[in-house]
């Protein structure tokens, strides 16, 4: 029986580790760090963002976590995220997946999900 994307990402602990590292990568990426660095000074907001992202990725990858957060359009409305910023975020995600030695098929699956969300996130 084939594993779900959730299982291939390491379940809840694997997704948490990925989210931690992705947010850290965003904070040092010059193309998008300005959007993420303020979280360093607001640890409660950072922890909330991490929890929401873990739930979003968990639910979206076939895990049992419920996601009760906002949809992508609502969550990103007014942020005016450019395509280049979006691609910088996707690059960070892909780099983190590779650093965690996530297999190529799983990385491609995550990439396809990322691309499917682009229109809901950019230019809102």
Automatic annotation (TrEMBL):
PROSITE patterns: GLOBIN_FAM_2
Keywords noted in UniProt: Heme, Iron, Metal-binding, Transport
Domain of life: Bacteria
SUPFAM superfamilies according to UniProt: Globin-like
Organism of derivation: Thioclava nitratireducens
Cofactor(s) of this protein: heme
Keyword Repeat: no
Protein name as catalogued: Group 1 truncated hemoglobin
Membrane-spanning segments: none
Upper taxonomic lineage: Bacteria, Pseudomonadati, Pseudomonadota, Alphaproteobacteria, Rhodobacterales
């Amino acid at each position: 029986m084939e594993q779900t994307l959730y299982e291939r990402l390491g379940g809840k602990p694997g997704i948490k580790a990925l989210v931690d590292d992705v947010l850290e990568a965003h904070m040092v990426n010059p193309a998008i760090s300005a959007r993420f660095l303020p979280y360093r000074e607001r640890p409660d907001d950072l922890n909330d963002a991490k929890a929401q992202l873990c739930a979003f990725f968990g639910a979206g990858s076939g895990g049992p976590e419920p996601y009760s957060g906002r949809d992508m359009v609502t969550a990103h409305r007014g942020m005016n995220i450019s395509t280049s910023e979006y691609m910088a975020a996707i690059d960070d995600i892909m780099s983190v997946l590779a650093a965690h030695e996530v297999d190529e098929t799983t990385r491609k699956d995550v990439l396809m999900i990322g691309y499917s969300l682009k229109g809901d996130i950019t230019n809102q």
